[in-house]
Structures are given as structure tokens and as C-alpha cells.
Design brief:
The structure holds two protein chains of two kinds. Chain A is an all-alpha fold. Chain A has helices at residues 2-32, 34-37, 44-67, 70-78, 82-114, 122-139, 145-174, 178-197, 235-252, 254-264, 266-271, 276-303, 314-324, 329-353, 358-372, 374-381; strands spanning 211-214, 305-307. Chain A has a two-stranded antiparallel ribbon. In chain A, helix 5 crosses helix 14 (329-353). In chain B, a hairpin with a 2-residue loop joins strand 4 (56-61) and strand 5. In chain B, strands 6-9-10-3-11-12 form a six-stranded mixed beta sheet, with helices on both faces. In chain B, strands 18-21-22-15-23-24 form a six-stranded mixed beta sheet, with helices on both faces. A four-stranded antiparallel beta sheet of chain B has the order 2-1-4-5, covered by helices on one side. Classes of the chains: A mainly alpha, B alpha/beta. Chain A binds chain B through residues 2, 252-255, 257-258, 260-261, 264-265, 267-275, 384, 386, 388-391, and chain B through 12-15, 17, 304, 306, 325-327, 329-330, 336, 338, 343-350, 354, 358-359, 361-362, 367, 370-372, 374, 396, 398, 400-402.
Chain lengths: 394, 501
């Protein structure tokens, strides 16, 4: 009963939303397959069957691209050739590489949303974290590597936390609306990064592109597998640990209790003697810190170089992701894996079937739409939910 | 017009909201419909006004069967609803409000025929003794007058069956008296009135016949002359109810709360409390009576640390709390039962258990060094649920799914789970049924006898007279008078509530 209520039930709507999005995506695939549709007047049945085959091909390419080909994985099991193993596990590791920044940013958004603060500035906090880490590495390149890595991670996290704290402070003290301030601070962050990347301190001598010196030769987050062209590093492990920590924090500590109370009702939290402003500032700092840590691990683990396009919208995708996840840490991990898989698998799908990657953004958008419209999903699957009084159907 | 509801049955999943309910009201008669929350009054009225359709049973108006598919048909059939929460547009004037939705239009442009509408409004208000300025804006009108506008709205739509839902909830005793005069005027003119309430005294005063609902069914129909408050309460609750709170004389000891010349502004920066001085001693219950909106809310918020005061002094247990935070005040041993418990006293989205520790989660045994102790929290919450007979499936249940009475019990259980020196209870029984009211009152007296000082703010005269040892009546931000509870009469308090001498 408890497992059902706590785990299965909350997952039901998002899973149905994802499923529905793929079904609608299929219809879209079918309707845009002009070559196939040309045969429709003469041979409608054959056209529909061919359409179904094409959809099947596309989605199977997507899955294989995201998780690997079973035959290759089987072969890799018995093999000791690093190239064979690497080839087999590359899709799944790439999915994890794509997922891990999303886990950080997703958790960042979830923690703020749970507190009732709408941190739209995760994108800015993410790149500010990465910038902070970059500066730390380039400022002290001669430190012992493990120490430098730890220091860079700490500074990167704090940079993000500071960038989150500012709008939190403004809201708590002056009432400035966080949606506005965080969005604006995203622009400021982007310009700060650009400014930094034009400085001689960060950019390689003689370069004019906004890309920093290579960091990975100084220090990098250790790789999990020492295999050719496998980029998976320990960032994903940190991400998963963070998901557990955030869950603990929110549900097992008094501070987490305060944040959740503030998130449900600022008034009731005040009446209960909690400091609403304190909760807002703490949530924003934690949120920014998580984003900053994500940015740090992205630049020091995956990319190895700071650039102004380090984040491909991780902070913004995280908003949709947290919505899909119902702001639950476990849900964030699951949703980040889904988004990561779509991103990675989409590459193979594009190569194999010629269906552009954009279809997946389309599907991703549909997922969010269906999550945001629970009544629609309920009516499609005829799920009845009754409100608190047990009387009014919602 | 005679209205008859026959064997009305309405079932919701898991709930039989109306179980073969039959009521009738004759032309020119006032039917009092009495029942606790959840007794099925609202469902029945929603069926009558066409919002719900009954599963079985029929509605007869003047002897013919009518089926309503939507509210318009009910209105066309002459049924006028005056809801507890008025449905008026604040920036409209009276004529516009009354005509809204039933406008007559003139000319090919379809402009609002204001002159004609105004004529009818004036005509109706004179005919029925509804004293209303037709050109006044709604937002400028006192609550009692707004209610008259609502009644005018129904009459404008040619309603001859008027349903009044808890009409006296927002009125002063004097306004209630005026309302009863209006009702009598209407019935003399042939209008039928259904008067829904949970106040026993009113229904005895105004109704020609009283039907009591209990748990979705008719518990009995009686004539006021042949019944008593006790019998009505028993019919409502289904068991003997102690209407008078049994309590011994107060044994006041030292002053716990002292309020001196306090001035407080409201959210709109108007002076809401204009110099109030008040003392509450250990072992006594002081009730602040008054019509809602006379500064009581702001006074309470100032006492518990939620609102800064402009001048004056508030001392609790010897400590000046003028600049104290809500938590500091709570730590002094102050229990606060807020007026709007759904908004302020409880977090609707959190569980019963979480709400139980809402203001003491940071203390042992619920937590130490920042970690919550799940077992201790669960044990304490389970104990509270048992002690206060809170009806909930489990302590994991979300608070919003509890009934109003049980939500209130969660708040009371939580506030009394600490050692309490001062209880500040604003409208502690608002919206509660008779059984729960009795229960809450008993607990308050229990706290008093245990040596706590109790300050109750209430707009319900019955409550004030039942529990208070001393009654301070607030009017327009000031204490209009302080009466001894034992010797105070309904009339004396009522006059002070209206600001009169």
C-alpha cells in the first residue's frame, strides 16, 4: 500500500504522458513521411503497414542508439578487446554522460520548486559554477591533482550557490520576484562568462574564439572505464549521490521540513514560527549550488574546456524535467535518463532513418504538455481521481 | 408556490450524500433546514438549484414534477439562491449587480436598459422593505446590505422560492434581526423561504417548520413551538449534547497576557486596532466578541508576533513581545489557533503527522541536530490522533482530505501538545458541527482549569456567552465594553457589538 502510494501512483501519470507522447509522435512520423503517403490513394492498407514498419524502425534505432545493440553487448561480454567492449557500451555510457548534467539541474529546479520558489536561473548558475571551477583550475594549476580537483569542485559549487543566493536574498529582503531576477541573472551570467573567456587569463594565447585553455590536461574528473572513446566519468556517480542526499535532506531533516512547509504555504510556515525568508534564501543557494556542481563536473569531466556554449540548455530543460519528475529526486533521475536517452539515441535514429533529431524535441515537448495537462491524460485512460472530500471528481 | 422534494437520493462514490430526503415548504412558509457540516444540506440545495441531478426522487413545484438540467432552469422555475459567499461584483453598483445576467436590453445596439432596471429595483426594495441605495457601489456597502442585494437579485428574477444558505454567518445580531423582518415580509407576500443554518436559536426564531438532516437523511421535522434547543441539537448529532459548557467558576491568578494601548495597522495601512488595552489572567477565559472586521484579526496577529504594532505594549508572562518573532512567542508557551486554519493553521498538502509537528519539529524529541526522528514523530502524532479522536485513515493522510472538524482537531491537538501558558484561539469553532464545538469548548475549559490563560476571539454570540468568564466587545478597533461572562446578556453584548450605547 505504502509502496503503491509513494512510488507507483506518482509515476503513473508521467509514464502515461511519455507513452502518449510517443504515440502522438508516431502519428506525426506517419503524416510527415511524404514518400510513403504518396501510395495512400492506391494502396491504403499497404501504406499504413509500411508506415508502421517505418515507425518501428525509427523507435528501435532510438532505443539501440541510447542503450546499445544487444548482440554487440553479448559479444562484449566474452571479449577482452577494449575496442569491442567500448563499441558495445558506448551508447549507454553516452546516455549517462548526457543525463548527468540534467540530474544536477533537475535536482536544482526540484528543490526550489518544492520550496515554492521558481528558480528559472539554473542555466546561469550552471555556467557560473563551471566558470568558477575553470578559474580555480587555471589559477592554481600546480596544486596536487586531487587537491586541485576538490578545490575546483568546491569553488564551482559555491559560485553556483552564490548566483542562486542573490535572487533568493533579493526576494526574501525586498520581495523582488525570483522569476524575473533569475531570468535576468541568466543573461548576466552569460555575459560574465563571455567576458571571462575573452580575458588572457582564460583563453589560449592568440585565440579569438570564446573557448578557454584546455583544462583536462591539468586536471579532470576520473573516468569510470579506461576504454577508448568512453567519456563516462564519476560525475554520474556524484549525481546519483546528490539525488539521494537531496531526498534525505528534504524528507529527513528539519531544514528540509521547513523548505517543504514554505513551499506548500508560506503563510502557514510563518504562523508555525518558521522564517520564510530564510527558507527562500536557503533553497535558492542549495539550488544554485547543485547547478554549479553540475556545471563544474560538466566542464571538468565531460568537456574539459570552458566555452560559452558549455550548457546546451541544461538549465531550461531541467524545468520541464522537474515538472515531469513531480519534483521528486527519484523522478528527476528517471526523467534525466529519459531525456539523455532521447538525446543520445536520436543520433542513431537520424543516421539510420533520416528522421531529424527535431522529432525528439517534438516528442519531448509533447511529454511536458501531457504532464502539464493531467486532466487530458486522465480522460484518455479513464483514470478517476476524487478530491479530498471524496465527492467532487477532479 | 409550494415546493416539494420527494425521496431525493444522491450517491457519490463511497458516500450516500442524500438518502431518500423528503422536504416541503408551503407558500408563504419558512422552512428551517438544520444540519451539521456533511449532513447533506449543500448537496440537497445543489440538486434544487440544478447543479447536481438526483439519482432518484423528484422535485415538485406547485404540484408539477420539474427536472432541472442546469441552474438556469431552476431560476426560471422561480428558485432563488442566496449563497453564504456573495456572488457580487465589487465595482458594480446595486442596479447593475441585481440585473447582471438578467438584463433587459434596449435599442438595436443592445445597450443595458438601466432606467427600467433601476425602476424595478426601487420598486422591489420598497415593496419588500429591503432598504438599499440603488446607485451605491457594492464595495462601499456593509455586508448586511450586500445580502439584501443578493435577495433583490433573486426577487428580480421573479423567484418565489428563496433559499438562504447560512445567511446570518456574517451579520451582527441587529442585522440578523433586520433580516428576519425582511423574511417575514417576504413570506407575507407569498414567497416561500428555505433557511439553512446550523444556529439553533435562529431557526427557532424564524422558521415555521424545521427539518433536521443528519448523515444524509431526514432526522426529523418539528414545529418550533413543540421543540427546544436541546431536542434540535440531539436530532442533529444523534446523541445527547451538552449545549452549555459545563465549567466551574474561574479562579483567575496572575496576569499572563497584558495588552496596553495597542495600535495596529491592517494590510491596507489603515489603523485597525485603535488603542486596545486588555488583560488575561491565568485560569480565566476572556472572549473578544465582535462582528468580523473590527480589528480582532489584527489584534490576534499582533499578540502572536505575526504583525508589528504601531504603538503600545504587549507583555506575555512578564516578557515584552513587541518585537518578538512568532517562534519566540510560541516558545513562551503560547498556543495559537488561527482563524483561517486551512490557510494558516495547517499545511493542506502535508500529512496529518507533518502537521502535528508543524511548530515543534525543531525540538526534542521530534528532532535533534537537524535530523527528524521519524519514529518519535509518528508516535506523538498517533497519540494526538487517539487523544483528540481525530478521524483519519492514518497519520500519513494528507490534511486536506480530512473534514473541517478533524482539521481543527489536528490544530488543537498540536497546539495543546506543548506546555501552554496562554491560548489564543481565533474563531475556534467556525464551521464546526455541534459535536465538535462541544469538544473544542471542553478542551479550552480543560486548559483553563489546568492554569492557562485563554483568549478567544469569536463572532458567535452563543460561543462567547457559553465559554467566556469575561467578554470584551470590540467595535471599530476599540474595546466597546467589558462584561462579566456570568451576568452578560445576549442583548447587552449585541448592543456593544453594533457600537451602540
Amino acid at each position: 500500500m505504502t509502496v503503491w502510494r509513494r512510488t507507483i501512483l506518482p509515476a503513473l501519470m508521467p509514464v502515461l504522458a511519455v507513452f502518449t507522447a510517443f504515440v502522438v509522435g508516431s502519428v506525426f512520423l506517419f503524416l510527415t513521411d511524404i514518400e510513403n503517403l504518396k501510395h495512400f490513394p492506391g494502396d491504403p492498407v499497404g501504406t499504413i503497414l509500411a508506415g508502421l514498419v517505418n515507425i518501428g524502425k525509427a523507435y528501435s534505432a532510438l532505443v539501440l542508439g541510447a542503450f546499445g545493440v544487444p548482440a554487440k553487448l553479448a559479444a562484449a561480454m566474452g571479449s577482452s578487446d577494449p575496442k569491442v567492449i567500448a563499441g558495445a557500451i558506448r551508447p549507454i555510457t553516452e546516455t549517462l554522460v548526457a543525463s548527468s548534467p540534467l540530474i544536477f539541474t533537475g535536482l536544482a529546479v526540484a528543490i526550489s520548486f518544492r520550496t515554492g520558489v521558481f528558480n528559472i536561473g539554473v542555466e546561469g548558475q550552471f555556467i557560473m559554477g563551471a566558470l568558477g571551477a575553470t578559474v580555480a583550475v587555471l589559477a592554481l594549476p600546480d596544486l596536487p591533482k586531487p587537491l586541485l580537483l576538490i578545490l575546483a569542485v568546491v569553488i564551482g559549487t559555491l559560485s553556483g550557490a552564490l548566483w542562486g543566493f542573490i535572487p533568493g536574498f533579493l526576494k526574501a529582503r525586498t520581495g523582488a520576484h525570483e522569476v524575473i531576477t533569475t531570468i535576468m541573472l541568466n543573461y548576466v551570467a552569460a555575459q560574465v562568462v563571455l567576458f571571462g573567456l575573452r580575458s588572457d587569463f582564460l583563453k589560449p594565447a592568440g585565440s579569438s574564439t570564446p573557448i578557454s585553455k584546455v583544462l583536462s590536461t591539468i586536471v579532470r574528473v576520473p573516468l569510470i572505464f579506461q576504454l577508448p572513446a568512453i567519456r563516462l566519468h564519476y560525475g554520474i556517480v556524484v549525481a546519483l549521490i546528490m539525488a539521494v542526499l537531496v531526498s534525505w535532506f528534504m524528507f529527513k531533516t528539519t531544514k528540509g521540513f521547513e523548505l517543504r512547509a514554505a513551499g506548500f504555504s508560506l503563510m502557514a510556515a510563518r504562523y508555525a514560527g518558521m522564517s520564510a525568508g530564510g527558507s527562500i534564501m536557503l533553497a535558492m543557494a542549495l539550488s544554485g549550488g547543485l547547478a554549479g556542481l553540475g556545471g563544474t563536473l560538466e566542464v571538468l569531466g565531460t568537456v574539459g574546456q570552458m566555452s560559452n556554449d558549455l550548457s546546451s540548455g541544461f538549465g531550461f530543460n531541467a524545468i520541464a524535467l522537474a515538472l515531469l519528475a513531480g519534483n521528486r529526486p527519484g523522478g528527476v533521475v528517471a526523467a534525466a535518463l529519459l531525456f539523455g536517452a532521447l538525446r543520445t539515441g536520436g543520433g542513431l535514429m537520424q543516421v539510420k532513418t533520416g528522421i531529424p533529431l527535431d522529432l525528439l524535441f517534438f516528442v519531448q515537448a509533447l511529454v511536458i504538455m501531457f504532464v502539464a495537462a493531467p486532466a487530458l491524460i486522465r480522460s484518455i485512460y479513464r483514470i478517476k481521481v476524487y478530491s479530498a472530500d471524496g465527492v467532487t471528481p477532479q | 408556490m409550494r415546493l416539494e422534494l420527494k425521496e431525493i437520493t444522491k450517491r457519490f462514490p463511497g458516500v450516500l450524500a442524500n438518502d431518500r430526503i423528503s422536504i416541503s415548504v408551503d407558500r408563504g412558509e419558512v422552512l428551517g433546514l438544520l444540519g451539521e457540516n456533511g449532513a447533506g444540506k449543500t448537496t440537497l440545495m445543489n440538486i434544487l438549484s440544478g447543479i447536481y441531478r438526483p439519482d432518484a426522487g423528484e422535485i415538485l413545484i406547485g404540484g408539477t414534477v420539474r427536472n432541472f438540467h442546469d441552474p438556469h432552469q431552476a431560476i426560471d422555475a422561480g428558485i432563488g439562491m442566496v449563497h453564504q459567499h456573495f456572488q457580487l461584483v465589487p465595482v458594480f453598483d446595486v442596479v447593475e449587480s441585481v440585473a447582471l445576467g438578467a438584463e433587459t436590453v434596449t435599442g438595436w445596439l443592445g445597450t443595458f436598459g438601466r432606467a427600467a432596471a433601476r425602476r424595478r429595483v426601487v420598486e422591489l426594495s420598497e415593496q419588500h422593505g429591503l432598504d438599499v441605495d440603488p446607485d451605491a457601489k457594492i464595495e462601499d456597502l456593509p455586508v448586511g446590505v450586500r445580502q439584501r442585494v443578493e435577495i433583490l437579485k433573486a426577487l428580480y428574477r421573479k423567484s418565489d422560492i428563496l433559499v438562504l444558505d447560512e445567511p446570518s454567518a456574517v451579520l451582527t445580531p441587529a442585522e440578523t434581526h433586520d433580516l428576519f423582518k425582511i423574511i417575514r415580509g417576504l413570506t407575507a407576500g407569498g414567497t416561500s423561504v428555505i433557511f439553512i443554518t446550523h444556529k439553533l436559536g435562529e431557526v427557532l426564531e424564524v422558521a415555521d417548520r424545521i427539518t433536521v438532516l443528519r448523515r444524509g437523511a431526514v432526522a426529523g421535522t418539528v414545529k418550533p413551538a413543540d421543540t427546544s434547543r436541546e431536542e434540535l441539537a440531539n436530532l442533529m448529532v444523534g446523541r445527547d449534547v451538552d449545549l452549555l459548557v459545563s465549567k466551574g467558576p474561574a479562579k483567575p491568578a496572575g496576569v499572563v497576557l497584558s495588552v496596553k494601548d495597542v495600535q495596529v495597522m491592517n494590510d491596507r495601512l489603515q489603523m485597525a486596532v485603535k488603542g486596545v488595552s486588555l488583560e488575561v489572567r491565568a485560569g480565566e477565559i476572556v472572549a473578544v466578541a465582535g462582528v468580523h472586521g473590527n480589528g480582532q484579526t489584527e489584534l490576534v496577529e499582533a499578540i502572536v508576533g505575526l504583525r508589528t504594532i504601531d504603538s503600545g505594549e504587549i507583555v506575555i508572562g512578564g516578557e515584552n513581545v513587541v518585537h518578538a518573532s512568532p517562534r519566540r512567542v510560541a516558545d513562551l508557551g503560547v498556543a495559537h489557533i488561527p482563524e483561517d486554519r486551512m490557510r494558516d493553521g495547517l499545511i493542506a498538502g502535508m500529512t496529518v503527522e507533518e502537521n502535528y509537528i508543524l511548530d515543534s519539529y525543531h525540538r526534542a524529541p521530534y528532532s535533534s541536530r537537524g535530523w527528524l526522528h521519524a519514529q518519535e514523530v509518528a508516535a506523538a502524532a498517533a497519540q494526538g490522533v487517539r487523544d483528540y479522536h481525530i478521524q483519519t485513515p492514518s497519520i500519513d493522510t494528507i490534511a486536506s482530505s480530512l473534514s473541517g472538524g478533524n482539521q481543527q482537531k489536528v490544530v488543537v491537538a498540536r497546539e495543546f501538545s506543548r506546555r501552554v501558558k496562554l491560548v489564543v484561539a481565533a474563531q475556534p469553532t467556525r464551521g464546526l458541527d455541534v459535536g465538535s464545538i462541544e469538544y473544542i469548548h471542553t478542551r479550552l475549559v480543560e486548559q483553563r482549569d489546568a492554569g492557562a490563560a485563554i483568549l478567544i476571539v469569536s463572532t458567535e454570540l452563543d460561543e462567547v456567552l457559553a465559554v467566556a468568564d469575561r467578554i470584551a466587545v470590540m467595535f471599530d478597533g476599540r474595546i466597546a465594553g467589558i462584561l462579566e461572562g456570568a451576568s452578560a446578556t445576549r442583548e447587552a453584548v449585541g448592543i456593544l457589538m453594533g457600537g451602540g450605547e
